[in-house]
Amino acid sequence: DRLEFPPGEEAQVDFFRGAPTLRPETGRWQRPWVFRMTLCHSRHGYEEAVWDQKLETFLRCHENAFLDFGGVPCVVRHDNLKAAVVRACLYDPDVHEVYSAFAKHWGFTPLPTRPRNPQENGKQERSGGYVKSNALRGRRFDSLEAHNAHLRHWNRSIARLRIHGTTRRQVWTHFLESEKPALQAPASERFAIFQCGDRAVHPDGHVEVGSAFYPAPAHLIGRTLRVRWDRNLVRLYLDQTPLAVYRRQQPGTYARRPGGAPSEAPYAQRAFVERLLGRCRQVGPELHEWADQALEERGVRAIRLIQGVLGLTRKHPREHLLAAARRASRHQLFRFRDFKRLTELAAASTPSTPTLLTKHPSIRPMDHYRMEDFE
């Protein structure tokens, strides 16, 4: 049966290949993708040429179309492209989490077509063919900007002024009189595109996002959380329940817990440093004094340094490490290679203790000695 839609009910979207366009990064001619959104009632549409079909590109094209129309339809029907559908299914497809949040922000319902059923997206299939055959056939463009400028001019001067073969009305007049008043009001601001993924809570109570670390509630250690992040914020969720929001941190840094001092180190890190200093105190006061000076001089970078110095106790006696610590403190040396060299020098300068030989060619075995030999 023919599918007819009331004003403002549905729009259909799809990508198709555009005209050859010069790509400045490669200096080669390439066919970009053309995004097309068609309003099913009036057949008015929006076209935009892009280089890829990534999620961010897909969503920004939606936003540009909504702003161009001055409103949002109730339903947006699309095929099963990866930017919109995670898992295609005849009865219950899984819509991409970010696309679902985008649809909620703009107030429409995303509706994937059934797999291998292009007739459900028929109005868009036909309008895409019309754009290719009427606007782009036989053309080449020196840049993507020129490609889009041509599409905008063609839409204003030809596409919207034509008498549509099915409705028998001028597309632009039909849109203004019937469809535009029925569209929903657009959102007041653009959608903040984010990324998402699952993250396990580490034993120190943090999750890692982009090589930075964010604290989670302590009772969730070992659990897996859902994390959403963008350029500015990181949000933690447990089964769709919001847990915490943090400002995005630089790689290698820790976000502070709510209420913590800005310069306060994480509790787990402070406890680990105290354990290292305790081990240095057990070796000797000279090594403990040197470790304190190293932490003051190098900060958190001294933690691994102290670990390496404590590892020298497996190969060198305590006296050699204490001698090296005294010299390192006196000369303010806080590098592992310097401390190791001082330890080896202490070992080389210590006189060796003579040992008694039990085996030698001149020594006969004990069973060669008998009491009869001494009578």
Concise synopsis of the structure shown:
The N and C termini lie far apart (128 Å). This protein is 36% helix and 19% strand.
Note down, in words, how this protein is organized.
The chain has 375 residues and is α+β, with helices and mostly antiparallel strands. 36% of the residues lie in helices and 19% in strands. The strands form five sheets. The chain has a five-stranded mixed β-sheet with strand order 5-4-1-6-9, sandwiched between helices. A four-stranded antiparallel β-sheet has the order 10-13-14-15, with no helix packed on it. Strand 7 and strand 8 form a beta hairpin. The model has no long low-confidence stretch (mean pLDDT 86).
What layout of secondary structure does this protein have?
Elements: E1 10-17, E2 21-23, E3 28-30, E4 33-39, E5 45-50, H1 55-69, E6 75-78, E7 85-87, E8 94-95, H2 97-106, E9 109-112, H3 122-136, H4 144-159, H5 171-179, E10 195-200, E11 206-209, E12 212-215, E13 224-229, E14 233-238, E15 241-247, H6 267-283, H7 285-298, H8 302-311, H9 318-331, H10 336-349
Parallel strand pairs: 1-6, 6-9
Antiparallel strand pairs: 1-4, 2-3, 4-5, 7-8, 10-13, 11-12, 13-14, 14-15
Keywords for this structure?
elongated, alpha+beta, 5-stranded mixed β-sheet
